[in-house]
Amino acid sequence: MSEGEYLKGRILLAMPGMGDPNFDHAVIPIFMHDANGAFGVGVGALREGITLHRILEELDIEPGQAPDCEVHHGGPVEPGRGFVLHGTDYEDDSTMPGGPLGALSSSVAILRAIAEGKGPRQWLIALGYAGWGEGQLDEEMHRHGWYAADGKPELLFETAWHDRWAATWAAEGVDPALLVGQTGTA
């Protein structure tokens, strides 16, 4: 196992003072991290004005049993590409296992299944993703940009989006009010 592979199945939290407004208070479950880079989908902010029913309408899918819920800002890469984070009780050809976080699917099939009441029991919808090239995330971790928290599904599926950042810190035993945006060097 190379350095950094342990991040798959963990939740990245942006450190205060990171300096990138794209990731202010970011909560990013990591679904892939290997020698070639890393991939995760943010669930700590919403895409303004976009709901699940609007997406279903654009795809000519009747909403059926799907609640009209908010859509998360998954990240700055491919902001029009959709992802569904969900439990392990659903799988299709696009499903990527996420360890303790459940799974991630990116097909229209999962949206149809949700609308028909045949999808996963727990799920979140996001547009876009966060991606890092070879060694990039490892470098950012060393520069005090991110913290890797334990991947607990209840933090994703049972915590309101606006509380996830603080709740994930709290689950790690850290009061986020005590975090500082800079560190010294020795």
Automatic annotation (TrEMBL):
GO cellular component: cytosol
Signal peptide (from-to): none
Record-linked InterPro entries: AlgH-like (IPR003774)
Family membership noted in the UniProt record: Belongs to the UPF0301 (AlgH) family.
HAMAP family according to UniProt: UPF0301 (MF_00758)
Official protein name in the record: UPF0301 protein AB433_02970
Native species: Croceicoccus naphthovorans
